[in-house]
Specification:
Length: about 500
């Protein structure tokens, strides 16, 4: 018998649409089956204090902010760290500068202390992702077995320590810097799988399109905050300029870890300050953690997981190309100066932040009201996200040198990726919440490969060819890959909980 159809009486929970606090209790396992609904008394879930799961989510949000600040700070700081190897783009198939008298992209102000070639700089920037693919699965498994608190928190704390050592490593030897960045990638890799495992223990089914995506918007906030702040620090004389960018974010990550220790816990059962009503509510709504070994045979033969993995890879191909290559596009094609480049780079991720929050709210309202099933909701969110991203990527290639439309279309293409946060990228929790960490580890490991394949693809297309037509090809190929992932996901994905996720599965 499929799990979610049969529950022990001690775990039976009904939906109550009339809670005093205006919140709806989620169905226990498979909220799509209205015939097996169970009811929680409204008095059992009413608290005047901030729910403990929201506090955990807030600290996870700050953790994601630290995580991405440690990831992207080098991408900005390397401009100030290195001597310029810039060669003017002489092609007629590029845009004229907005202000030829103040085009710092082509008259760089920075004369860095390191004479690294563009190829070597690419190795330094890409080293993070080589480490990032190594520890995804083990991170998810450790979080499921020993709890996500220390895996998630420890990843950010250790990465922060290594970031503090980055300036010293760069000055000793570039090889040591590459090793440090590879280690940072390997240490950060368990963060996302462990966070997914944490949501599996803390977030009830009908809040999984809202709370995890909103918490993960710490990534976008991290990019938005880090990019201009690193630029300012590099221009300053504080701690020698560019090293201060690593000192600041490394220190903030260590300070965050102190708060995480006191406010985050592996599950409601372990939290010493959670209200009894919320504790009972969550323990009844969320499947019990399984103590058995990881069911690798079931995981490897799980068809919906293949759909999630392919969509994750394709989405990340687009995401990482834009994350790593937008500064180059803005500089060499649209000819923004350095100051404009930093601002323009942050705008798309502000759009993504807004779209992620809105789409999550819409998705959970649709599911809560029974308008669409979990499967249909995830599919439609993914379709909207993929089609929106693909459409605006294609349009970017056809608007030529219209700087305003270029920024608007690029911002919207990134923004629609936000729909994936309540679509395909949260689907691991739907099919097997007890093993969500392992499942996220598998798909995130595979989806990390575009982190170094994407920039290589851009470099191959634009090598001695920084032209509008070259970037049009990049945007068109990315659009096609995005739509392909969506197509496969819609065919293979089924949001019903897998039978092997529960102890009482027959």
């Amino acid at each position: 018998m499929r799990s979610g159809r049969k529950m022990e009486s001690s775990e039976s929970v009904f939906i109550d649409n009339n809670h005093d606090d205006g919140m709806q209790a989620p169905l226990l396992a498979n909220e799509e089956n209205n015939e097996n609904s169970y009811r929680v008394e409204s008095s059992s879930y009413h608290s005047h204090s901030t729910p403990a799961r929201y506090v955990v989510a807030i600290w996870a949000f700050l953790g994601f902010l630290c995580l991405y600040s440690l990831r992207v700070n080098l991408s900005v700081a390397i401009v100030a760290m290195t001597k310029s190897h810039l060669v003017n783009n002489e092609s007629s198939d590029a845009c004229p500068p907005i202000n030829s008298d103040n085009n710092s992209s082509y008259n760089p102000e920075f004369h860095g202390e390191f004479d690294w070639s563009p190829k070597l700089q690419g190795m330094v920037l890409g080293s993070f992702f080589y480490g990032y693919v190594l520890t995804q699965i083990i991170g998810g498994m450790l979080a499921e077995r020993f709890g996500a608190k220390w895996i998630f928190g420890g990843s950010i704390f250790i990465a922060g320590i290594l970031t503090l050592l980055t300036p010293m490593a760069a000055r000793i030897n570039v090889g040591l810097l590459i090793a440090i960045r590879l280690l940072i990638g390997a240490i950060e890799a368990p963060a996302f799988p462990s966070a997914t495992a944490l949501w599996g223990r803390w977030i009830p089914p009908l809040e999984r399109s809202i709370i995890p995506p909103i918490a993960s918007t710490g990534k976008e906030i991290g990019i938005i905050v880090t990019t201009p702040l690193v630029s300012l620090l590099c221009e300053s004389t504080v701690f020698g300029g560019w090293p201060s960018a690593f000192y600041l974010f490394g220190l903030l990550s260590c300070l965050w870890f102190i708060g995480w220790i006191f406010y985050a816990y592996n599950s409601p059962a372990e939290h010493p300050r959670i209200s009894s009503s919320e504790k009972i509510y969550l323990l009844r709504c969320i499947p019990r953690a399984k103590k058995s070994t990881t069911p690798w045979k079931h995981i490897l033969t799980c068809v919906p997981l293949y759909g999630i993995a392919i969509q994750h890879i394709c989405t990340n191909f687009v995401f990482y190309i834009l994350l790593t290559s937008l500064p180059t596009y803005f500089s060499t094609i649209l000819r923004f100066n350095l100051q404009q480049n930093g601002i323009m780079f942050a705008i798309p991720y502000l759009f993504q932040l807004v779209f992620t929050i809105i789409s999550g709210q819409i998705a959970d309202r649709i599911r809560a009201k029974g308008i669409l099933s979990t499967t249909a909701t995830r599919r439609w969110q993914t379709i909207i996200g993929a089609c929106g991203t693909s459409l605006f990527l294609v349009l970017v290639g056809y608007i030529g040198c219209d700087h305003v439309l270029a920024v608007v279309f690029i911002s919207l293409s990134v923004a629609f990726i936000g729909f994936q946060g309540s679509g395909s990228l949260i689907s691991h929790l739907d099919i097997a919440s007890n093993y969500a960490g392992t499942l996220m580890g598998i798909t995130n490991m595979l989806a990390a490969v575009p982190g170094f394949v994407g920039p290589m693809f851009v470099g191959w297309i634009t090598n001695h060819n920084q032209t509008l037509s070259a970037w049009k090809m990049i945007f068109n190929v990315s659009s096609g890959i995005c739509l392909f992932g969506c197509f496969v996901y819609c065919i293979l994905f089924d949001g019903e909980e897998q039978s092997w996720n529960r102890d009482d599965a027959e």
